[in-house]
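--- STAGE predict ---
source: upstream dedup step, 1 unique chain passed
mode: sequence only
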Amino acid sequence: MTQAMFVPCAQGVEALLAAELQAITGQAAQAARGGAWAEGDLAAAMRINLECRLGQRVLWPLAQGPYRDENELYALARRVAWDEWITPEQTLRVDVSAQRSPLRSLNFAALRVKDAVCDALREACGARPSVDTRHPTLPLVLFLDATQARLYADTSGEALFKRGWRDARGGSQAVKGEAPLKETLAAAMLAAAGWAGRAEDGPLLDPFCGAGTIAIEAAQLACGIAPGLQRRFAFERQLPFAPLRATWQQMKRAAQARVHAPTVPIFAGDVSFRMTDFAARNAAQAGVAHAIEFKTADALQRLPPAPAGTLLMNPPYGERIEPKGQGQGGNRNLARAAREGFDDGAEAAAFFAALASHWKRHYADWTAWCLSPEPRLPSLMRLKETRRVPMYNGGIECRLFRFDLVTGSNRAPR
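--- STAGE serialize ---
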């Protein structure tokens, strides 16, 4: 049974995701708004869940068609053979996403789809499944536009950015005040930079590592660790996948056999010892502590760990940058101000100008990639970007800027 699966992703990542899906499945994939389509069977769905770094979840199509009201959504859902997907002893949840839908209540739309599943199971089995809003056996996703409805089974369960290492144990509980970068965005930054953990990609350094997400994602690439190897998926309890349990175990064993020593050096650190220690503990939880060299250091003073390589970073944003002169930071350490929050826009501008000056003095032959919501970042740094890639960090519109560093040059016009 081959279907066109939909794999949603963050806005701006669609083309990168399509290329990744094609590499995973060996079949053509097509970028679409908010995700990509991939052709494949149930085994391909399992493989995408295991191997995909950029997607948010893997959605298996169940039914689609026109609708005008909730009753037609009920009829659409009744076309599915639900007893082939779920038993009365299992659980479900229905999530609805809509754009220009004429319906007044998305909650009622979800309720009607749930009713269709329960009615079908009651007729087929004499009992109905229960609803579990946290960890359902069968999460369902309903997409509505102005006239069309599409119903999917979510084969992932928890979103794919949850790689299985960031939990409340082993030191990976979030440090107070830290908003970790999602693993899928870190993977998108690496993909946009063309850094895949190969020896020819050269060393990678994140001098603002925070929770360590970029470095950990890079290290898993460099060690050949599949992103889903440490977690479980909803499909493992869904009926259509039951005959494929041996295939799934074989996939995981093959993925484990591909793990190897890191092929390229990875460096990371933060001005805060607390954050560097936090990131190091996260790396241990992710199984890549041996692949990353952490160092507590001021980004404005840290010397390059290799003659050439890639700088990839998501520096703290602070306030929106509005240069007003020399700033109000006094003797306050600018890198620590970046971590703790800038006092004003002038302080932020002074920090990025100092960072660019440090790069031009010490990081010739490196390539820097910097994720920022500030569109004027290149002019503030007096560096000419050679590429800018639109990306979203949650709901924040950002750009991933590329700077090819050359000593004392590469300056943007005043």
